[in-house]
Every structure is written in C-alpha cells, then in structure tokens.
UniProtKB/TrEMBL annotation:
The keyword Cell membrane applies. Gene3D superfamilies: UbiA prenyltransferase. Belongs to the UbiA prenyltransferase family. Protoheme IX farnesyltransferase subfamily. It catalyses: heme b + (2E,6E)-farnesyl diphosphate + H2O = Fe(II)-heme o + diphosphate. It is a multi-pass membrane protein. Carbon 2 of the heme B porphyrin ring is defined according to the Fischer nomenclature. CDD domains: PT_UbiA_Cox10 (cd13957). The gene is ctaB. This is Protoheme IX farnesyltransferase. Its EC number is 2.5.1.141.
Length: 221
C-alpha cells in the first residue's frame, strides 16, 4: 500500500533501507519499553492506557478499519485521543471526567482534521484501494461531514468548562476558535473553490494547539 501512494513510497520500509522484520522488532521494542518506562516513572494506569492506545492503533485502525471502511478515521481516531487521558493518569493515577472530555475533544476533532487532508490525497488513496471517505462517497459528501463534525466539536469543547472548572480564558478561546473553525468548514462545504482543503487542515492543527494552550493558561490563572 505504501509503495503505491505518492506520499509514502519513499518510506524506508518501502525502499528497503529498513527491512520489514527489523521495523516490526523495533516497533515492539518501543511499545514494550514505553510501557515499562511509564510504569516505572509515573503510574501503572498511564502505562496500561498508553499500551491500549498503541494496540488499538495497530490492530483495530491500521490492520482492520483503514482497509475496510470509510469510518476508519472516526473509530480509529480513538487511538489518537488517548494522550490527554494518559497524561492525567500519569500525574494522578486516575482518569476523571475532565480527562475523558479532553479525549472527546480530540476524538471529534480528528475527522474534520484528517478528512480535509484526505480531500487533497484522494487520488493516492484511490490508487492504493484505501476506503477513505472522499474515495467511497465523494468530495461533496466529505465536505458536508467535515462541517457536521466541526459543529459537533464546538459544544464538546464547552463541556470541559464545568468538567474541569475552566474559566473565562478557556471559554473565550473555545468559542472564538470554534467559530473560526466552523466558518472555514462552512466555506469548504458551500464555496469549495475559495477554501482549499489544506487551509482547513492546517488551521485544524493550529486550532487544537491553541485550545490546549488556553486550557493550561486558564488553569494557571
């Protein structure tokens, strides 16, 4: 699959610079080492959660969902949403409601973020037979889904306010950033010629980074 796609065909496992067996052994060693390191330096809960996310990403998303369903990004996004929960568990040994709201924020952010990129890479995915949403349902439907998930994301971000006792700084950031994200997603849906998908993709990266910075600033104040 990587050899077919333009963006991945120079990866060292494709070119032969790194034999697949060596890559597999290295990956297993990293996963096992990370589990031991987290357990030794933080908490067992953090180590177990991080390992669960790794196994979910490898077996559920990469080996199963990515090759079979256009919902791969939606369901598989759970793996990428685990870090806030892992971080909370590493510090406290627990995973309270606020940590899971942060999980939900990343979970609902992932589809519009990645589908915007997949609109740009539709040809690559089609050649490789990867059932990404633009390939299976078309660009127009994908743009509509980007807007839908963006609109669902905004109220989820506001839930963190009561769950983590956030204040004005966070609420202002969540509202302002959410409005900007929704406006870009709406333009991508209604006026695709004037809103390149990569612009939405790049903004989504900035959006999530600034949102989490606002969490830290608000908590510090």
């Amino acid at each position: 699959m990587d050899a077919i796609m333009r963006r991945t065909r120079e990866r060292p496992t494709v070119t032969g610079a790194v034999p697949p067996g060596h890559a597999l052994a290295f990956g297993i060693a990293l996963g096992a080492g990370a589990f031991v390191f987290l357990w030794a330096t933080t908490t067992l809960a953090a180590a177990v959660l991080a390992l669960a996310a790794l196994l979910f990403y490898v077996f559920i998303y990469t080996m199963w969902l990515k090759r079979r369903t256009p919902q791969n990004i939606v369901i598989g996004g759970a793996a990428g949403a685990f870090p806030p929960v892992v971080g909370w568990a590493a510090v406290t040994g627990e995973a309270p409601l606020a940590a899971w709201v942060m999980f939900a924020i990343v979970f609902f952010w992932t589809p519009p973020h990645f589908w915007a990129l997949s609109l740009r890479l539709e040809g690559d995915y089609a050649r490789a037979g990867v059932p990404m949403l633009p390939v299976t349902d078309g660009p127009a439907y994908t743009r509509a889904q980007i807007l839908r998930y963006t609109l669902m994301l905004i109220p989820v971000t506001l839930l963190l306010g009561p769950a983590a006792d956030m204040g004005l700084v966070y609420y202002a950031a969540a509202t302002g950033l959410g409005a900007a994200f929704a406006w870009m997603a709406w333009r991508l849906w209604r006026e695709p010629g004037s809103m390149p998908p990569m612009r939405v993709y790049k903004f989504s990266l900035l959006y999530l980074g600034l949102l989490f910075v606002a969490m830290g600033v608000d908590a510090a104040l």
